[in-house]
Write a structure and sequence with these properties.
Mean pLDDT: 79
Distance between the termini: 67 Å
Number of strands: 2
Low-confidence stretches: none
Radius of gyration: 31 Å
Largest sheet: 2 strands, antiparallel
Length: 180
């Protein structure tokens, strides 16, 4: 899987082989990871400034903190200003006649150095997917529905007068249905 952390034992093995003087290619082959993955962990190890003995004494939790978390840079001020306005923009978009382009133009008036339209849409879509997640449920035809709803209970609570009627009697064709 792309960009997922490997096990701590594998990281320890990569560091041990590097400490023994092995090349990055041979480390990758022996550990079963790609050369770029081995390179990534080795560069993080070198930049940390620790020796192999110090890293080997660390527990799995500390090792995960050192290697597992990606060091994503903080978003710049333009993006932060835009992200603060997303909840308000989402409400505005529900009104008729309001488009993303109109909202982007109004944002650009307030922040002339703001992001361009394609980046605006990209970050808005990311925010929207994170705020309103969607779950798809696979359902085979003929199986039980994914969620069972008691429709009778819903009808009775919304229309209590339905339960008051005792029975119906069907008359011959041409006549109305009568309740007793």
């Amino acid at each position: 899987m792309a960009n997922s952390t490997i096990s701590m034992n594998k990281i320890r093995q990569i560091l041990r082989l590097f400490d023994q003087g092995r090349s990055k290619q041979s480390i990758a082959v022996q550990t079963g990871v790609s050369r770029n993955t081995a390179k990534k962990y080795l560069s993080a190890f070198i930049s940390s400034g620790f020796s192999y003995e110090e890293v080997n004494l660390l527990g799995d939790r500390e090792l995960e903190d050192l290697f597992g978390k990606s060091n994503e840079p903080q978003p710049d001020s333009r993006l932060q200003a835009l992200q603060k306005r997303f909840p308000q923009m989402d409400k505005e978009l529900k009104r008729t006649g309001v488009t993303r382009k109109i909202l982007w133009e109004s944002h650009l008036k307030d922040h002339p150095d703001g992001l361009q339209y394609t980046q605006f849409c990209f970050y808005y879509n990311q925010w929207k997917a994170r705020v309103n997640p969607v779950m798809h449920i696979d359902h085979k035809a003929g199986d039980k529905p994914p969620c069972s709803i008691d429709l009778v209970k819903i009808l009775v609570t919304k229309h209590p007068d339905i339960t008051k009627k005792k029975s119906t009697q069907i008359k011959p064709a041409g006549r109305k249905l009568e309740y007793k």
